[in-house]
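Q: What would this chain look like folded?
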Amino acid sequence: MAEQLPNTVPAVERPRARRFARRRMPALAGLAAAALTVGALTACTPEEDGPEGTGGSSQEDSGGGNTADEGAEGAENSENGEDGENGENGEDAGNTAGGGSSADGGDTGEAIDGSAGRLEVGTDIPPGLYRSVDNDFCYWERNNGGEDEFESIIANGTVEGQAYVQIAETDVYFDTEDCGDWTPVPEGVTGEQATEIPGNGGTFMVGVDIAPGTYKSAGNTEECYWERLTDLSGSLDSIADNNFATGQAIVTIEDDDAFFTSNFCTDWVKQD
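A: My prediction, written as structure tokens:
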């Protein structure tokens, strides 16, 4: 199994809630992800078993970053021989999701420039699951190449902090503007499965970044939004459950959930 990179939690102030209208998007698409990042991930060798990287139908479709469209950067690719940027400073993350390191890209390919603009899928960027962190008003889009600018959008997201996206082989273009580099997430990826989730931490992979179970988040305002996702297809059917929370929120993240997103909530603590 590949060596895990060290976990650190940067001192990040809770950002003020902002609504984005950079592009025409589906309802609730302006929800932002926070500047906290998820824990270290490692890729298993073929001889070792690891949880499914995406779950559900996320290997076929993709999205990430907002309610109907969900959201990978960390260490440099192993070929560069460099340690992750956050590996030598900060505090140990413990059991809290928000590590600042990601999986070693291994043979899955090098990180993609997050400000590259329009990329042709299969030529400029391989299809697959990607993660980008440390974003500040990042915009990404999966596009089918149609003539109509809006109708050609398969899924998109405007995020701060972290985003996951699954680029399908049938996608024609992938647009990325002002994002952190997109790092490939290997199949069979494993992680620490944290039991505390930053309430403004963006999107987390269930069974890898965070453990399934029942979580509580107290003292929320009307800005708090959370959702459980079965995959990254970007469709409304992929949302297993979601809500805007005021006061205390209780959420049970199921074993078969693929991702959990939390924006502008207080931290979530596992109860069981």
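The chain has one domain: 41-270.
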